[in-house]
Design goal:
Largest sheet: 4 strands, antiparallel
CATH class: Mainly Beta
Shape: globular
Number of strands: 7
Oligomer: single chain
CATH topology: Immunoglobulin-like
Helix content: under 10%
CATH architecture: Sandwich
Length: about 110
């Protein structure tokens, strides 16, 4: 399985280290309007998806449970997502406390 890490963007000096993982993660659409889909195929367990402003402020966070060997798709369509101001954000995916992916996303 291919490891996907598109961007490595530390949010602050105390940001966790990034680790390579056997998890394949896709985030779409990007840019988005009022919802984001996170599709992942990886190890079984809890994954935490968070969205940060470019200043490092956490704007959204949700934890999902993934089943090993299956494609797991989660929709982030919370009011918090729809109410984000237009602009650029950083979406991170954490697995067991380690960032396995960080990606720039754009709210239209």
């Amino acid at each position: 399985m291919q490891t996907l890490i598109k961007y490595i963007i530390p949010l602050d000096v105390n940001a966790p280290t990034f680790a390579y993982s056997t998890t394949a993660i896709e985030v779409f659409p990007n840019p988005f309007v009022d919802r984001i889909l996170v599709r992942l195929l990886g190890s079984e367990g809890n994954y935490t998806v968070a969205i940060y402003s470019l200043e490092g402020k956490r704007m959204y966070q949700q934890t999902f449970y993934a089943i090993d060997g299956e494609v797991n798709t989660y929709e982030l369509s919370d009011i918090a997502i729809a109410d984000l101001r237009r602009g650029m954000y950083v979406l991170t995916v954490n697995y067991h406390g380690t960032v396995v992916q960080a990606e720039k996303i754009i709210k239209q």
